Amino acid sequence: MARVVLKNVQKKYPDGLKAVSDFSLDIADQEFVVFVGPSGCGKSTTLRCVAGLEDITAGTIHIDDRLVNDVPPKDRDIAMVFQNYALYPHMTVFENMAFALKLRKMSRAVIAEKVEKAARILGIETMLNRKPKTLSGGQRQRVALGRAIVRDPKCFLFDEPLSNLDAKLRGEMRAEIKRLHMDLKSTMIYVTHDQEEAMTLGDRVVVMKDGVIQQCGAPLEVYHHPVNRFVAGFVGTPPMNFFEGTIVAENDKLWFDEGSGRLAIPAWAKEVLGKQLGSKVVMGVRPQAISDAPIRSKIMNDNVLPMKIGVVEPLGDKMDVYLSTPHHARVIAHIDAHRGLVPNETMAVHFDLDRLHFFEAGEQGTKLATAPVAA
Predict the structure, then answer these.
(1) Model-level pTM greater than 0.85?
(2) Of 55, 109, 143, 339, whose CA is between 20 and 30 Å from 102?
(3) Is the bond leading into 238 cis (omega within 30 degrees of zero)?
(4) Which positions ≥6 away from 120 have C-beta within 8 Å?
């Protein structure tokens, strides 16, 4: 397998669009790295640059200590798995998986051994004589994976391979790809817009926006310690809630004033937020850190805001409740489905003060403080 190093990589199109800007990343041998971000953030373009399907405008790409800027895709010793499977409809599963090996003029015996081994790994050994049109979406994706495996590449590249599958199959194939990584001990780069996939698959997650890396780190590090408001809002389901307010002091205590109520500033944030006295800041709280019952607070009134109940979405043992205040129209709480909630009623909403995040004001606000106990 191989180490992949991108240094100051840029991709700019003739019309002036900069799809990737100063992208630098060192991917270790056998590491599983996931590029995640909204549509148009540059993640697929970056992957295609690694594959050689896009020429880079500036920077360098090394695969296994070899500079590959001018190396054609077929000579980079990588295998790519696409969103649409890209199987040949007139060929059998065996022929699809063997095609690249035949081009390398390998012997029939070696080809058969490699294809049958990959088929056993993926559980498709009984389908080798079938045509793609007779297979389900999940089976076709397994064939596409098998076609990549037989090549024994230095690096696997995945471009949103599960986006065409239904939710159940996506979950199954996620587990399959994770198991493959552990079995093959290979270097893998995976692109997705689904942050759940990113969190469950990656050793590291690279969050991108507008062609720029916003944050790179272990999944739980990115989840618990987002470096800015964009990352905080993108990673997590349901998404993080944001409240714009002011830091105020009263009775020798610091408060976050939301406009219709106040929350006590927890001890771990006082030093940083004390410097923001009188200033606008953004407080972030995940739906899972909101409750309709008192939690982790010695003085209940320090962590309560009154909110109006809107839509209630039952999810079995949990429910998503859409709430609002006079100053914030959309707040989501992910709480136990233990009692009925009536729309338009007002309820006391309790915040876990040890799971708050504070950011500078603005859409791209940089992190000011995050609870250390969240790690």
Answers:
(1) yes
(2) 55
(3) yes
(4) none
